[in-house]
Amino acid sequence: MCSTDDRFADDVHSMGGCLLTDNLSWASSMFANTSCPPDPELVGERWRELWLEHQHRDEYWRHGSVCEDLGAIEVPVLAVSGWADGYSNAVLRLLAGLKVPRRGLIGPWSHRYPHLGVPGPAVGFLQECLRCGTAG
Q1: Which of 1, 125, 132, 133 lies 20 to 30 angstroms, CA to CA, from 56?
Q2: Which structural domain, as residue segments, surrounds residue 2?
Q3: What is the 3 state secondary structure string of 82-108?
Q4: What's the pLDDT tens digit per position in 71-91?
Q5: What does DSSP say about strands 14-15 and 18-19: parallel, antiparallel, or unpaired?
Q6: In 3-state terms, what secondary structure has residue 65?
Q7: 65 within some domain
Q8: Does residue 44 sit within a domain?
Q9: In Å, what is the CA distance from 118 to each residue of 67, 79, 105, 111?
Q10: Cut 0.90: pTM above it
C-alpha cells in the first residue's frame, strides 16, 4: 500500500538517486536531515563520501526494490495509491510486470488509506479488500 517497486528510480523520497522535495511534505524535520550533508564534526573527514555514497543504482537501492525480481513475488497483490501520492507510478508498473493475480486501486487522494482519501471522493477500502479477496 502506497509504496514503490523501485526505490532508486521512482520513490517519493528520491528519484534517480536525487532527493525530492516530497520529503518536506512527509516531514520537514526529516527533509532537513536527509538533504543536508553529514556533519563533519560527527562523521569526520568522510562526510562528502558518505553524502554522495548512493547517487547510482547499487545494492542500497536494490535491497528494497521489488522490481529487481518481480518473479519472486508468488502471492496475489493489491497495489494501492492515490494520484496525488508520490507512489502512484508503482501501481501501474506492478500491474504490468507481476505474473500473479493482481489488482490496482488508484484514486483522487494523497498518501492515505483510500477510505480517508482527501480531497476525495474516498472509497470503502476494507470493503474493496474483501471484494478483491473473494474475486477469482
Answers
A1: 1
A2: 1-8+70-136
A3: ECCCCCHHHHHHHHHHCCCCEEEEEEC
A4: 999 999 999 999 988 899 999
A5: antiparallel
A6: coil
A7: no
A8: no
A9: 29, 19, 15, 9
A10: no
